[in-house]
Design goal:
Layout: H1 4-11, H2 21-32, H3 42-51, E1 82-86, H4 92-99, E2 103-107, H5 112-122, H6 133-136, E3 145-148, H7 171-182, E4 186-192, H8 202-214, E5 217-218, E6 223-226, E7 234-235, E8 237-245, H9 282-297, E9 306-307, E10 313-314, H10 320-324, E11 327-329, E12 351-353, H11 356-362, H12 375-384, H13 388-409
Parallel strand pairs: 1-2, 1-3, 3-4, 7-10, 9-11
Antiparallel strand pairs: 4-8, 5-8, 6-8, 11-12
Length: about 400
């Protein structure tokens, strides 16, 4: 029985070929071959393997069932529920739901570097652009939960009722279209806190109207949850939207309550000294200091921030500001010789950026989670990710609600 690492050699997973549709089909098929979802990938998967001189027939090169025991986070063998992972990023939703013994039967993500990280950890290449019908056509019919951390976009709702048709041209429309076609039992959406007031509140109003009226889902009022309340020292507020298909008879849902335990940055700080490359040059540091002074003189609070070991990090976000507002003190550096091209010398105050691994921990990813990309890509990926503990706490409530409903119906 082949392992996943051997399959990657067979399929020549490297560079841009890594992200072909065929690789998505093969990896999805091998993870769902024993499920009903497997039939959606079978034809393409076997066609591609045949072209490679391989076979899915027992006794030949690739045998069924297939072993995924050499990847960090293999799918559960006997899951409670199934879900799909839209706008998957690096798999924050997947990590959370797999931790609760649920299985992903479809994933999609357009960014090639995020795909690389996702595949390295879950043994599955996500499909590409979810706005395309050829991608939507791979989505199985029978899955339980739709998960999506979709980007927020403005809707053309001036003078209209803000219904399904008014969301066309936005990524939410694609989510809504999939819900309409597939009718999952539950939906779980995440977005930035700003969605609450986006477009004067009209954007969220339209989304809720589509889910409640057009698609006929019970959707309680959305909730803003903060990652720092769920076991990670990061001040990250996000809006969560949960819904249940109305015919299930579910008319009550309670979002998770914050944990009483306060976690501080020291909990996720690197235990060993880190490379000099993470330390700021004195030139760069002085630039940040002067920039902050200029804003302070105008009464603004913009600028860099140094997070104490007993403090809480600011939200990790894409761009330089996400790193500059999350600097730390670390006086363990002994060799100040630069390893990158910098202006000036390495600062002697022990001020450095957080490492990608520290960002991973702030987002709730375990240390077993692989980071196979450059630091620049890693910062972007973790900045765009969901905070796993907050997602998991909410998903647990969704699953409890579904299980309670199943018990009632029996």
């Amino acid at each position: 029985m082949k392992k996943y690492s051997e399959l990657k050699k067979v399929l020549n997973f490297r560079k841009l070929k890594y992200f072909e549709e065929e690789h998505a089909c093969v990896t999805h098929y091998l993870q769902t071959v024993e499920d009903d979802a497997g039939k959606y990938y079978k034809v393409k998967a076997e066609e591609y393997l045949k072209a490679k001189g391989q076979s899915l027939v027992n006794g030949h090169s690739i045998k069924i069932p297939f072993k995924f025991d050499d990847i960090p986070f293999p799918p559960p063998q006997k899951p409670d529920f199934t879900f799909i992972d839209l706008f998957a990023g690096i798999g924050g939703f997947r990590m959370a739901l797999q931790n609760l013994n649920n299985k992903c039967v479809f994933s999609s993500e357009w960014d090639k570097f995020a795909k690389k990280t996702y595949e390295a950890n879950f043994g599955e290449v996500p499909f590409g652009d979810i706005t395309k019908d050829e991608t939507k056509n791979y989505i199985p019919d029978s899955f339980d939960i739709l998960c999506a951390g979709f980007p927020c976009q403005a809707f053309s709702i001036a003078g209209r009722r803000g219904g399904f048709e008014d969301t066309r041209g936005t990524l939410f429309f694609d989510v809504a279209e999939i819900i309409r076609r597939k009718q999952p039992k539950a939906i779980f959406l995440e977005n930035v806190k700003g969605l609450l007031n986006h477009g004067g509140g009209k954007t969220l109003e339209t989304i809720l109207n589509v889910l409640r009226e057009d698609l006929e889902y019970f959707v309680p009022e959305p909730k803003i949850l903060n990652a720092k309340d769920f076991g990670t020292p990061q001040n990250r507020e996000r809006i969560f939207i949960v819904g249940f298909r109305k015919d299930l008879g579910i008319n009550e849902f309670h979002y998770p309550k914050p944990s009483c335990e306060k976690i501080i940055f020291e909990k996720v700080k690197e235990k060993n000294p880190v490379s000099v490359k993470y330390y700021l040059s004195d030139t760069y540091l002085n630039t940040l200091i002067e920039h902050k002074k200029r804003h302070a003189s105008k009464g603004n609070g913009f600028g860099y921030e140094i997070i104490p070991d007993d403090g809480t990090a600011n939200a990790v976000v894409c761009g330089g500001m996400g790193r500059e507002r999350n600097l730390v003190y670390d006086d363990r550096l002994e060799d100040f010789t630069p390893v990158t091209n910098i202006k000036g010398e390495v600062n002697r105050q022990g001020i450095r950026k957080m490492t990608p691994r520290e960002w991973a921990r702030l987002q709730g990813f375990p240390d077993e989670y692989l980071i196979p990309v450059s630091d620049a890509s890693a910062y972007k990926q973790f900045g765009n990710s969901v905070a796993v503990p907050a997602i998991q706490a909410t998903a647990k409530k969704i699953i409890e609600t579904l299980k309670k409903n199943d018990t009632k119906r029996k």
